[in-house]
Specification:
Number of strands: 9
Strand order of the largest sheet: 3-4-5-6
Helix content: 25-40%
CATH class: Mainly Beta
Number of helices: 3
CATH topology: PH-domain like
Structural class: alpha+beta
Radius of gyration: 21 Å
Order of helices and strands: EEEHHEEEEEEH
Distance between the termini: 37 Å
Largest sheet: 4 strands, antiparallel
Strand content: 25-35%
Shape: elongated
Length: about 140
């Protein structure tokens, strides 16, 4: 809506809502689990125990990517399994965050007031980074 005020300046009013006010659910990314499972195949021939460990870890991460949901709300990062809230991380308690290896992001780190978290990137890394930059700028 456009209108002119008493001083003759044009004022424009919009109903735009910032993305930081909406809730965004991240889509899963199966890159890391697939790389681990594929790497396990030749390792099984050379070192069965190491190959088995890689395969099990890859399958575990695949299960986590399928069952977990990350939601960026206006005030928190929420982690759900199905419809059940598992953990809530309020942005107000965050001190810093970082995504390791931009070319192939594999690890997400963030530090809260009382704890440090390292998480494998099992969700779309581009959306993760965009949401983090909007909602919790680095300090």
């Amino acid at each position: 809506m456009r209108s002119t005020n008493k001083a003759g300046f044009l004022s424009v009013t919009t109903s735009y809502t910032s993305n930081s006010a909406s809730t965004i659910e991240l889509k899963p990314s199966y890159n890391i689990p697939l790389v681990l499972v594929i790497a396990a195949i030749p390792l099984l021939l050379v070192q069965p125990w190491v190959g088995g460990a890689f395969a099990l870890f890859g399958l575990f991460l695949m299960f986590q990517a399928v069952t977990l949901r990350l939601l960026f709300t206006a005030t928190d990062l929420d982690i759900y399994r199905g419809d059940k809230l598992i953990r809530r991380f309020p942005y107000s308690e965050w001190q810093n965050w970082r995504i390791f290896w931009n070319s192939f992001p594999i690890l997400f780190y963030f530090k809260e007031v009382k704890s440090i978290h390292f998480l494998p990137i099992l969700f779309n890394p581009n959306t993760l980074k965009t949401c983090l930059e909007e909602r919790c700028p680095r300090i």
